[in-house]
Design brief:
Structural class: mainly beta
Largest sheet: 6 strands, antiparallel, barrel
Number of helices: 0
CATH class: Mainly Beta
Helix content: under 10%
CATH superfamily: predicted glycosyltransferase like domains
Distance between the termini: 25 Å
Oligomer: single chain
Order of helices and strands: EEEEEEE
Length: about 110
């Protein structure tokens, strides 16, 4: 994983409810309501019960504002209590997707 000084945008600890949909690792459609651990302008680390694969495309939906963004699975952590930490990277940066009142300066769209 990239070191913090190499990240494209700063991570923020935030428990944000999200819905994720796509195809599971066995090619079945899924939709799962879950939550984030950290968020950034470029994506999020979420807890996911559905088995997914690195590189696969998924759609994140923010139920607070109905915003949807496409992303891809970029990291899979170990499973804990049936949930795995899964990093999802947006296909395009989307700092406005997250309900962060004071986002880090590096999040500003360029």
């Amino acid at each position: 994983m990239a070191q913090p000084e190499n990240r494209r945008s700063e991570r923020v600890l935030a428990d944000v409810p999200v819905a994720i949909r796509g195809e599971s690792a066995d090619n079945r459609p899924f939709q799962e309501e879950t939550f984030t651990v950290t968020v950034s302008a470029h994506g999020a680390l979420v807890m996911l019960g559905t088995k997914v694969a690195i590189g696969q495309k998924v759609t994140l939906m923010n139920p607070q504002n109905w915003d949807e963004r496409e992303g891809r699975v970029s990291y899979m952590g170990r499973e804990h209590a049936g949930l795995a930490q899964v990093a999802i990277e947006f296909l395009r940066p989307a700092p406005e997707f997250w309900p962060i009142s004071s986002p880090p300066a590096g999040w500003k769209s360029k």
